[in-house]
Amino acid sequence: MRLAMIGLGRMGAGIARRLMEHGHEIVGFDHNAEAVDALAGDGATPATSLEDVAAKLQTPRIFWVMLPAGDPTESTIEALMAIADAGDIIIDGGNSFYKDDIRRAKAARERSLHYVDVGTSGGVWGLSRGFCMMIGGDTETVDRLDPIFEALAPGVGTIPPTPNRLNREGCDTRAEKGYIHTGDAGSGHFVKMVHNGIEYGLMQAYAEGFDVLKGKSSDRLPEDERFDLNLTDIAEVWRRGSVISSWLLDLSADALAKDQMLDSYSGKVADSGEGRWTIDAAMEEAVPAYVLSAALFARYRSRVEGTFGDKLLSAMRFGFGGHVEMPQ
Amino acid sequence: MRLAMIGLGRMGAGIARRLMEHGHEIVGFDHNAEAVDALAGDGATPATSLEDVAAKLQTPRIFWVMLPAGDPTESTIEALMAIADAGDIIIDGGNSFYKDDIRRAKAARERSLHYVDVGTSGGVWGLSRGFCMMIGGDTETVDRLDPIFEALAPGVGTIPPTPNRLNREGCDTRAEKGYIHTGDAGSGHFVKMVHNGIEYGLMQAYAEGFDVLKGKSSDRLPEDERFDLNLTDIAEVWRRGSVISSWLLDLSADALAKDQMLDSYSGKVADSGEGRWTIDAAMEEAVPAYVLSAALFARYRSRVEGTFGDKLLSAMRFGFGGHVEMPQ
Amino acid sequence: MRLAMIGLGRMGAGIARRLMEHGHEIVGFDHNAEAVDALAGDGATPATSLEDVAAKLQTPRIFWVMLPAGDPTESTIEALMAIADAGDIIIDGGNSFYKDDIRRAKAARERSLHYVDVGTSGGVWGLSRGFCMMIGGDTETVDRLDPIFEALAPGVGTIPPTPNRLNREGCDTRAEKGYIHTGDAGSGHFVKMVHNGIEYGLMQAYAEGFDVLKGKSSDRLPEDERFDLNLTDIAEVWRRGSVISSWLLDLSADALAKDQMLDSYSGKVADSGEGRWTIDAAMEEAVPAYVLSAALFARYRSRVEGTFGDKLLSAMRFGFGGHVEMPQ
Amino acid sequence: MRLAMIGLGRMGAGIARRLMEHGHEIVGFDHNAEAVDALAGDGATPATSLEDVAAKLQTPRIFWVMLPAGDPTESTIEALMAIADAGDIIIDGGNSFYKDDIRRAKAARERSLHYVDVGTSGGVWGLSRGFCMMIGGDTETVDRLDPIFEALAPGVGTIPPTPNRLNREGCDTRAEKGYIHTGDAGSGHFVKMVHNGIEYGLMQAYAEGFDVLKGKSSDRLPEDERFDLNLTDIAEVWRRGSVISSWLLDLSADALAKDQMLDSYSGKVADSGEGRWTIDAAMEEAVPAYVLSAALFARYRSRVEGTFGDKLLSAMRFGFGGHVEMPQ
């Protein structure tokens, strides 16, 4: 198929290349002309503006927008809606907030355009492993784009099948290849958002566990209850047949194998919108999200040196008990 | 009544003085001779050793031990058990772990001694306001000591009565004066322990709330959504008819009135055993304690600059997304 | 002063009566004619429509809207903006989301109207105790309305002054009477919102603590470590000089004095918007809110019998360990 | 090697069989004679008592105890210590609390015996996949037992190597085969304990995430913001290249493929000691464990229908606001 890739950063360029490798044709556009040139060098058709992009596709056109969520995506999609003809397809492949998708899909529908949102997981590894994709949009359009998604997905590979799927009808076979149609527009990014919420929780569980392992050598403990544990080997052994083996553990094992003290990291941890939006969604649904929220808050806390709230605790303790702060 | 006060630190000396003011006689002992002399100057009978203490009381003797929990209390009570005669009473007025009380009370019973544990709240303010006391031990002994407890308690004072107690039989009238017999030995410190667990939770709720108020002036927010709030006046107004008025809020209002920025505090917050023991008790009972544990953990977190777990989060993020840490 | 009270439910009627008792004149309106008649019987001027309300006030008019947050408040304020003349004042005394205030205040400004938001705490008790008020709006308008707020506030009363305020300049003396001007429009409801967030946290701290006390009689514990505690007397004694005394504890003591088992309650706990909005605000500010969020989630959890997530835990345990669910 | 397997339940028998398949000789003992006979049928030497076990091994003997933690393990190891000769080895392969190991290892040392604790992960799947083992004990003894551990471990298999281990010296190659020597006695069970603590956290992260996905179809949401998601396919697609792929997700995908509603589960989730001990360890080390504790508490909460604490919340709300409980 022939489609435009708008936004040729690491992810956009990677997706474009993977698609070309699978025989698709790419019209590439980015405000950074060097990025366009680089992709053109790999066989893409370069474009100099959104209008030029449109001119270089045949209708119904396929525009894949791969830009940072928020203003860049919003303004580009707005511009595309003005340019596009009835029947054209706009794909938002970034990390948009799903309610923005719902709104934009409605606007697209009013102009007889199709809107598809694609949440992708896999990080920079997706370029080689393939992308795990969660796709929202109308069924006809998502089906029409299937060759693109199949090319991007990791495929069945060597991952063992899920036993209970084998003898069951009605399972979407695309799931086994690494992509699914999740429902109407917005649902792709919603599912991806929850994926990231879970990711935060999983990461924090490992983080706390390794903190407990590391703390076991603390001299605040009785001497015969201390262990000086090899975290590198522990992470490695847990990859082998343990209940908590996972890809995040694989990454942890690799990081620890490089430097068991992780001294190159300060531990100030960023968060993107998805973690927060997941808590918002939980609150809208009245679903308890203790772990997912605690994982998010741990990141906030990692970025401040001493909270005002902590000072207030000290002030209260001084107030009722004359306690001065601990010297530690 | 005549009793010994063993341990004449701030709390022990204060309790002894309050008792003498109410007409009780005190034999005072401390390893620090100056503390003994000071109390003797106020009318106490000085003692030079535990044996001397015993000699200066008539049987059945009353020993009030007011020492740091752990070894000092343990060794002193052990020594007293060896010295005491059948029928004597040992009171642990410190912050002991209630299971230690249960064990020591059993040992005392085997020697025909009486063991009473007194949990006290009120901090340094108790010296003037009176102490809120939770008392464990056998009923006959606790009743016999009633004049002592009544003298120490704040009394009915100006606190309005609880409406539903007025027309109800079976309520312990001591509760309205500020002390209760909670049950067998150990129960006094158990109830005091949970009191402190709750205290941690209350404090953390205020801490987080004031953090949110303070953060509302952050320039990470849209300009028209920022407020530069006067935390001092907010704390004060909440003391006046709001649902969240409390003594801890009174203390907060006072601290904020002195320095709204709380700049004299580093925010490294200590914790004593009670917070931890409360979580232990919750786990033994399989009771969810999300808030009480989070309040405890916030104190732990306040005392480290960057956890190993946080570094592991950064390492994982680098692993899957090539994310470098945020500059902030 | 003369002002309109629009919305004569329990709160609106109570505020109107308290104002009339303090010599203010009220024009009362409600869709429920009986509520209007009842207030007229107490001396208010009845009105039959918003237009009638406007006709019965002299400019600059004061409209106090006391309606449920959301649509009722929104549509009424919109209608008032169309009716009002330049210089008129619209007060939202309900539980609005502060961002709605910011938006409405901006719209009001564009029409040369003044918008004031009043967050009130004190619940049904405020009718007799007076209301604790947090007021947002432009200074001139808030100052002009001072007689109204002073009449509604509890006043200095018998609450002891905060020591550090006594010898300090620059403290807002209104705070000691129970109301403050918090800043621009929206800030009143924002501060009230955080107040409620804290309220949730405080309540949950007590709830967990009493759960631990109650669970101590559980037969899952070793027999010599069980206590059958009198929760009614414990709540009462903690009102007397303890660190955790508070108005919420007073209410708890009263409820427990009526029925120690609290058997008349199912324990399905509602939440209003403020708890959730506080978490939203915390996330916007990147402030950790472990306790406030956990308190909110506990309410969500109280309203479901068994979560899907819990079933998934059981399914995983069966998957890796063949564990069947516990019979309990 | 020749060793005794004491305790022939599912795990003990499975381990014994796997060892025999790898050429080791087993003396089998269990209070259940049928279990002994069954294993004898597979080639083991049956024993009728611990003394008989000892008689059928040559010194230095190897006793592998595979019994429930607590009394059964404790009393058996005590009996073995009395029977054993200097130089004999006692292995505790169960789920013991690591402080019990430390104590027992000390007692063993005083009798010139060797004590080894083996924490195993892998659940019932370990019988076919091999067991991931964390082993505590003195180096000489653990090294001597290496053929046993290597036989039980999953081996390198098809799991890709950790890149940073390849070009690094000093990494324990046993880790890549699925077992490690963690340090002194007790450390094996300690590491396994933290493993389980992490496991709780991971499971709860998935549980909350799927709860949010499922709740997205709730009719409490605006109609155009609802999605009716296929959880079965979502779990499957996340196995394929996503950041949150893991063995626990594999199990979830399988359970959901069997029944997307998980209707056969009540959602009352048990917990074993390890989750609680991990929180204890965190508190001893002053390490924040928000997520691990919340995961534990969620299990507690899953097993009660309505907590006393929730009732107290309702009672307070009635007290301050006259709120009656929600009908829902």
TrEMBL record, chains A, B, C, D:
Ranges for domain 6-phosphogluconate dehydrogenase C-terminal: 188-327
Which residue windows are coiled coil? none
GO MF annotations for this entry?
Answer: oxidoreductase activity
For whether the record's keyword set contains Oxidoreductase, the answer is: yes
- Highest taxon in the source lineage: Bacteria
Does the keyword Oxidoreductase belong to this entry?
yes
Q: Which InterPro entries match?
A: 6-PGluconate_DH-like_C_sf (IPR008927), 6DGDH_YqeC (IPR004849), 6PGD_dom2 (IPR013328), 6PGDH_C (IPR006114), 6PGDH_NADP-bd (IPR006115), NAD(P)-bd_dom_sf (IPR036291), Pgluconate_DH (IPR006183)
Q: Which Pfam families is this protein grouped with?
A: 6PGD (PF00393), NAD_binding_2 (PF03446)
> Could you say which EC number(s) this protein's record lists?
1.1.1.343
Tell me the route in metabolism or biology where this protein functions.
Carbohydrate degradation; pentose phosphate pathway
Can you tell me which family this protein belongs to?
A: Belongs to the 6-phosphogluconate dehydrogenase family.
Name by which UniProt lists this protein: Phosphogluconate dehydrogenase (NAD(+)-dependent, decarboxylating)
Provenance organism: Sphingomonas rustica
